[in-house]
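Worked problem 6 (solution included).
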Amino acid sequence: MKKREIIYLTPFENTFESNYLAVRAKENRVYADEVVAILPDVATDHSQYLEWKLRQKTRQRFVNYLKQKSYKNVLDIGCGNGWFTNIIAQNIDGKIIGLDINKEELEQGRRVFLDSRLTFAYGDLFYAEFEEKFDLIVLNAAVQYFPDLTLLFQRLKSLLSARGEIHILDSPFYSTLEESRAAQQRTATYYKQLGFPEMEKYYYHHQLDDLNGWERLYVPPKNMLQKIMNRKDSPFGWYTWKSGE
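Solution. The predicted structure is:
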């Protein structure tokens, strides 16, 4: 099999990657290839077992959704090591690009996932040029790394085909400005304790109001009783925007 290479859509810049990977290592989130290959399924003694059990719920919901559709050209933004990109590739008829600005994780994805329809690309979303429009764009645990959702959504919509869809998964949104500011303070404290206070500036805390006009396909539990009864499911919503509607 011919060795596939990462496609570079914009020049490489190491302004974020080194600290991000150092944080991931400190959190025990730099995984061996054999672990990445089977994500989100992990061994019961894995340090993030409970977290990945929740992400299995997201995986299954999204796979069920994909099976009802037909997508020919897909973009997965903030794909990291590509585990979710690979799951999408296994459940669509078309091709998919996994896009990120983390070269090391992209290299791991290229190495681990060999589906011929799957391409890993390095690039800044706002400057990258794509040959075709996409009928599905996915951001899984990625939207919190974008500071301005208005600009992000404008860019994403410009990349959609006439009947394209955008999906946001596994990312926190806050009901009020107060909740958002409190979360921002927790993030600052967390990165400071880890020894990487500079990472706070790369993590943003968006509000549900930013998703006005979006459809909610999964709503996480809100009150305490619901949280107790639904504690084995994702605490994050699933949101979609569809062009042509």
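Discussion: The first strand starts at residue 7 and ends at 8.
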